Amino acid sequence: MKYISTRGQAPELTFEEAMLTGLARDGGLYLPAEIPVMSQDEIAALAGLPYEEIAFRVMWPYVSGSFAEDEFKQIIARAYEGFGHDARAPLKQLNENHFLLELFHGPTLAFKDFAMQLIGQLFQVALKRRGERVTIVGATSGDTGSAAIEAFRGLDAVDVFILFPHGRVSEVQRRQMTTPADSNVHALAVDGDFDDCQAAVKDMFNDFDFRDGVKLAGVNSINFARVLAQVVYYFSAATNLGAPHRKVSFTVPTGNFGDIFAGYIAKRMGLPIDRLVVATNQNDILHRCLSGEGYFKGDTIPSISPSMDIQVSSNFERALYYAYGEDGAAVAQLMDELKTGGFNVSQGAMEALRENFDSGRVSEDETLATIEHTLAHSAELVCPHTAVGIKVAEDHRATDVPMITLATAHPAKFPAAVEKASDVHPPLPSRMSDLYERPERVTRIANDLGAIEDHIKRHIAE
Ligand SMILES: *Cc1c(COP(=O)(O)O)cnc(C)c1O
In terms of CB atoms within 10 Å, which of 90, 137, 380, 453 comes out highest? Predict the structure, then answer.
């Protein structure tokens, strides 16, 4: 399988090369040159298999040139062995035809562990074979950073630097990033918001001297290996509810569009998904865009679902690539216009997007009310991101198609909002109950590319 850039101007790469590179050199995002399709029989055969086996069957065509079959099976096994639930991604029923897909049983209690734990193992095997070392840099609105640190801590071929917006992540999220004691882990609190952190990471990748000098590698949600890992649970959930013999829909609490884009890939692979519903909080650029108002940046407003406080959804570029008929030049043009504020989507591309995606926006008050309502009516305590999803799902539910809402984080990751809504303090699972006692290690840094690059150069291991 070859991988191509959404902007059409970067060299084609193998899976391993695209994974180790992250962002393409033309500023675009890598995608497989062709999306493999599974037959209805192959999909039906997934029902009831162990999660790891489904993961192997779904991902194998994408990675087969880069890893041996047994090697890849072992990578998958190691990636998910630290999860606190044997099903890895269990389904729970909320009410008639509405299900929650619990994606928070990994080591940092959010869905990002599914991708990050896999990518940590993939990097380790690939770098060991090459005899190389890399510097991983990532921006986080909270959950990516802790998931990356947990996945890469202690690996000797990797230094990991995580940029997060100072004061804008929850205390649990911050402590998950600042308490690991491994010397290859570096948490940077940037004086700015998430979009500033994400822009700094993009700028580092476009600074080729720096990029080559420190052997930069990216594991943000732009990394196709992460998207791929997330495709798996769409298959496990849908087949457990009767696919491919009946359709299902998904509602996804969305920020960077990585998680829901994985659902779109699953659909193109042949999984009979009816609707993919984008759920946003008050940072609603995707909802506005899908409502036909164009893609124009606003200011990021802090919310009680901070992992979705994003105004530029980097993976949306991938959806645009397909909506514009795989025209890299058209995507490059749109991304140029985005630099000066935004762009309008052509009518044809809008129709293509609407064929697959619906959207909804949820206010802060509605989020709190949904947490309370879900506890009262379904005996489930949910995190604020999940509540955003549940509210939008209820608004988009059809009577004859099961709706699956992705539960993206454990409520204990966001105790303040959950307690405010429900009067219940969500306890941390016992395996991390000493989190508040562990010492923190963090560097506060200006929102300045030079200062950040300098810090990284001085702190990578020789
Ligand atoms: C990252 C995150 C999201 C948003 O996912 P995207 O892939 O960025 O759209 C939603 N909820 C939680 C809890 C997250 O950590």
Answer: 137
